[in-house]
Amino acid sequence: QLAYGDPAGYLPLRQAIAAYARQARGVVCDAEQVIVISGAQQAFDLSARVLLDEGDVAAVEDPGYRGIRAALVAAGA
């Protein structure tokens, strides 16, 4: 119990999220496709790093969440 857990998050929670997404939203996914993150800023950062390449242009609405700019700049957008 004192060791590091799965980097994707607690498996029973990921299973519950996948089951909810299937039932409530019609999303076809398994727990292995779900990543539990600690908040919106981490989600924006992870998404930007995975989906954007250096030099890509990203547009955000104004007004919008201010923290997203930092994630986009850090990813090279």
Structure description:
- With 77 residues, the chain is mainly alpha-helical.
- 45% of the residues lie in helices and 0% in strands.
- It has 3 helices and no strands.
- The chain has helices spanning 11-25, 40-51, 67-74.
- It starts with 10 loop residues before the first helix and ends with a helix.
| N-to-C series of helices and strands | HHH
- The gross shape turns out to be globular
How would you classify the helix and strand content by structural class? Answer: mainly alpha
Helix content, binned percent: 40-55%
Which terms would index this structure?
single chain; 77 residues; mainly alpha
Task: Tell me briefly what this model is.
Helix content is about 45%, strand content about 0%. With about 80 residues, it is mainly alpha-helical.
Topology:
Layout: H1 11-25, H2 40-51, H3 67-74
